[in-house]
Amino acid sequence: MSQKSASIPWVAIASIDDSALENDGYVALNISFEGAEPEEPRFLYNWRSGDGLERGETPEQQLSNFNFLPPHDGRFYLSAQISTADGTVQNVGEWVLVGEDDGPIFTRPPIPDDSVEPVIEVNDVSMVFNMASEQFNSLKEYFIAIARHELNFKAFRALDHISFTVRRGEAFGLVGTNGSGKSTMLKIIAGVLDASEGSCTVTGSIAPLIELGAGFDLDLTARENIYLNGALLGYRKEFIDEHLHDIIEFAELENFMDMPLKNYSSGMVARIAFAIATITEPDILIVDETLAVGDFLFQQKCQRRIQELVGTGNVTVLLVSHSIEMVEGMCDRVCWIEKGKQRMIGPTDEVCAAYRSLGR
Amino acid sequence: MEQPIREQDGTQSAWYPERQKSAYILRQLVTRDFKLKYRRSFLGVLWSVLNPLLMMLIMAAVFSTMMRFSSDGIPSYPLYIILGNVTFNLMSEATSQGMRSIIDAASLLKKVRIRRWVFPVEKVMFAMLNFAFSLIAVLIVMFAVGVYPTWTALLLPLFLVYLGMFCVGLSMLLSSLSVFFRDVMHLWTVVLTAWTYATPLFYPVSILPEWMLALERFNPMYHFVGYVRELLLYQQVPSIALNLTCLGFGAGMLIIGLLVFRKTERKFILYI
What we know:
The complex is a heterodimer.
Chain A lengths: L9 E8 L3 H4 L2 E9 L6 E8 L5 E3 L7 E4 L5 E10 L5 E10 L19 E13 L8 H9 L7 E13 L3 E5 L6 H9 L6 E6 L3 E3 L13 H12 L3 H15 L14 H13 L5 E4 L8 H16 L4 E5 L3 H7 L2 E6 L2 E7 H9 L4
Parallel strand pairs in A: 10-14, 10-15, 12-13, 13-14
Antiparallel strand pairs in A: 1-2, 2-5, 3-4, 3-6, 6-7, 8-9, 8-11, 15-16
Helix pairs in contact in A: 4-5, 4-6, 5-6
Chain B lengths: L17 H21 L7 H21 L10 H28 L1 H4 L8 H28 L10 H25 L2 H16 L11 H7 L3 H13 L7 H25 L3 H4 L1
Helix pairs in contact in B: 1-5, 2-3, 2-5, 3-5, 3-6, 3-7, 3-9, 5-6, 6-9, 6-10, 9-10
């Protein structure tokens, strides 16, 4: 894909005209140009449904507008690839909503019964940190403290006797205000932090969403980052090769694959992270605040994908958030942790109602 | 306690088993470092060859004309310098990069369960790769001064095993120490500078006074540099004593590094 961004004298603009929707049932995508008029531009139109499951394209043509007949109500993305004889290519697109909004997209999975195999077993876990009096950032401080016999330990309980079990196919929520210990719990589940007391047993593979600056390198292109990230998650190279296209497509980054990541918005990075984590069926998908940086369309798409994964019955979703709306929309059960203590655990509605009353 | 990740057959073919996973991560990280090092530079990887050549030219000019070191008994002074330099560079690059590797991977280590040793080890592998490129520069110098490589050069891989063990051990030690005491990072640049002068890289061993020569026995780099010069400059098979010394330093450092790293790695996450 050749993008000569430096030398493009024209800029394509896409606009949606849905005035004919009611009577004739089509939506028009019109392409206009800013700057110079391109010489003999050719247009290739694409469309796809909001969930990315349906798609279509027209043959290359010279018409600068495209009449799209939606197959059903819903959200669609209409896009055009405009190319000229000198090899310049640009892509533009717009979202369009046909009919009513497709309603609540996520339905909570049912609470599984006790016969379903548990994937996360948190058994009386406590986490004790030795507070700042013990953390030295330099040798000098350390030796001074030793000399003064000040190496005392001020214990801080970040988690205090937490126990819960998450079964296969559940969407389990962890809620709590800032600093309540959610992230500490998550780190213990992810296996990067060892609990001070108690045990945490996790069965199967974990796919976390990796944020900007963690597994992503800003100077590498999106393609290179996908391989790097895939490796860090433990994917096989052949598997990434095979699914590279799906990842690109899901993240809607077809035209930006060979651009360094530093030119991306944080939302675009979140898309790649989500696409990589969910391209296969992990046993446990950890969804945290990283997802919140995407726009609402992408969040809807993510929720659909999470729905699909949960629907298979094999994937367990662990959602960690202080936003109660997202938890209410997705989770069947919720554990509320407050100041390191387990306040409540149970069906979403009960726990969320109690959590909401906290503010009053 | 490490949590066991149970492999499930069938549907899990998307994932590598643990050991292969680490190997693939290492490969990807080395590729990343390689790309980042040469991205957007016009001469690219050629710099890995040019850099030691230019450094050697400067040092040869400074020390042979200005300082007038006698180079009696050294078949070729330029070759003497470049061999010392590229070897020392391998160690200093590997350890200074390896030292930061855990801190740099902090946000990742907080989220994903990865074998922590891959980060310092990867930096050593990357330094070894650069060393391989600088061997081209060494080869150019050898042909330029008329010292042609003989079959003793075939012992280079053995030398790299010794030095590689030493660098991995030192990098692991430094990377875990620097997690707890950031001072180590500042201190190490000073130590490396002192070490550069303490090792006969650009001056002949013969100018060292007696007491200094006695001290050099405890300088691992003195032996490593000596080893590679035996192979490519004097073109002799290094003595068994020298082999054992290099092996001893390499294995000893590796064991110390591994022990410290394994003992402390569980606490990393609390300090990064």
